[in-house]
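User: Predict the structure for this protein chain, please.
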Amino acid sequence: MDVAEWLRKLGLDEYEAAFRANDVDGEVLPRLTADDLISIGVNSVGHRRRLLDAIAALGVEMPTTAATAPRGQPDAERRQLTVMFCATWSARPPCRRGSILRICAKSSPPITVPSAES
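Assistant: Here is the predicted structure, written as C-alpha cells:
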C-alpha cells in the first residue's frame, strides 16, 4: 500500500514527509495509535481523529496477508488442562528428611479407620 497516496486521498499530504521519515508503510499503518501519531508530529486533534478513523476503515478493507497472519499452526488442536492438588491426612508418623516416601510408607504402621458404630 502506498501511504503517500493514501494521505493525499485524505487531504493530509502535509504529513507525507513525517510518515516517510518514521518508516510508516502499509504494514505498520494499521497498528498506529494516537500516541504514535503524536510522536510522528500530527499535533492537530482533528487530523489525528481523521487518520485514526481512516486506519480503522483500512483494517476492515485490508485482506490478511502472510505477513500479518497469526503465527503457528492454524490446524493445531487446543485442549484444556485441569490440574488438581490434593492434601491427604494421615495418622502415620512423618517421613524423615531424605528418605524415600515408599520406604517410609512400608515401615509405618497401618492406618486404622474407626467405624461409625464406635
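The chain is about 40% helix and 0% strand.
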